[in-house]
Amino acid sequence: MFEYTFMQNAFIVALLISLVCPMIGMFLVLRRYSMIGDTLAHASLAGVAVGLLIDVNPIISAFCLTSFFGVLIEVLRNMFRRYAELVLIIVLSLSVGIAITIISAGLVHTNVESFLFGSILTVSQADVWSVVILSIISLTTILWLYPQLVMITFDEDGARIAGIRCRAINYIFAILVAATISVSIRIVGILVISSLIALPVATALQLQQGFRRTLQWSVVFSFIDILSGLFVSYWIDAAPGGVTAITSVLLLLLVIAGRQLRTVLEKRPEGV
């Protein structure tokens, strides 16, 4: 299958996604911000629509507009501290409203289905380079801010007292989430990006190991989910996003079942 250029492009993008998604997802899940990832995933549709409208690479336009919405969430979150969930509704309504208006008005003459569900056929060389650049920037930034991100994740008030500029780092992190979503659009699709960010981390958490080991395992599970979804979708001629989401859930259930079985065996009396 790798004699086809589109499969080579899709494989490169899938590898990068399997690294970036769980590294961002780890901090989102532990901070209980998973729904922010889901909101920005749907908001990226507005970025895709705008990119198609002005004839710009949809990945780049999705990154720019999703970054704007990510920063907007942080700004509004400081204004609606007691009603944080309202912020997500506001941003979701605005972004999806923009996307629906542009698409339904017939201003976009390209089928957006591949962006919603993912497609291995539409990954171009330009998309690959866009994903490579955004992934390098994201991974470099995560490594640079890693100690601060860990501290903010577990104790934001303590981090603020320690002199860490939490608000600035939260803004940067919102842009990182936007970058992660943007690089995943072509392969995974907008509708299931949030599952790819959260489910490998949820699976790794079942192993009940330390933070660093959990992060490493989440990358492993993400790699299995994405590559399985890519290969299976190629053979059954289906959208990779749906297959990847199903694989992620099945792998999570398998790990949970394995942990429960291990617990039962450990409690079983010797000689029985």
Task: Note down, in words, how this protein is organized.
The chain has 272 residues and is an all-alpha fold. The protein has a domain at 5-191: ABC transporter involved in vitamin B12 uptake, BtuC, CATH 1.10.3470.10. Helices cover 81% and strands 0% of the residues. It has helices at residues 5-30, 34-53, 58-79, 84-104, 113-117, 125-154, 156-161, 166-188, 193-205, 211-236, 240-267. The termini are far apart. It is found in: Cell membrane; Membrane. Its main location: membrane. This is Metal ABC transporter permease. Belongs to the ABC-3 integral membrane protein family. Keywords: Membrane, Transmembrane, Transmembrane helix, Transport.
Q: Helix content range of the residues, please?
A: over 70%
**CATH topology type of the domain at 5-191:** ABC transporter involved in vitamin B12 uptake, BtuC
CATH superfamily of the domain at 5-191: ABC transporter involved in vitamin B12 uptake, BtuC
* Mean of pLDDT: 86
CATH class of the domain at 5-191: Mainly Alpha
CATH architecture title of the domain at 5-191: Orthogonal Bundle
Number of helices: 11
Our Rg estimate from Cα atoms comes to 19 Å
- Strand portion, in percent? under 5%
End-to-end C-alpha gap? 50 Å
Low-confidence stretches: none
Question: What structural class should be given to the helix and strand makeup?
Answer: mainly alpha
Number of strands: 0
Query: Globular, elongated, flat, extended or rod-shaped: what is the shape?
Result: globular
The largest sheet, given as strand count, sense and whether it forms a barrel, is:
none
Which series of helices and strands comes N to C?
Answer: HHHHHHHHHHH
Membrane topology: Multi-pass membrane protein
Keywords: Membrane, Transmembrane, Transmembrane helix, Transport
Transmembrane segments: 6-29, 59-76, 83-108, 128-146, 242-258
Main location: membrane
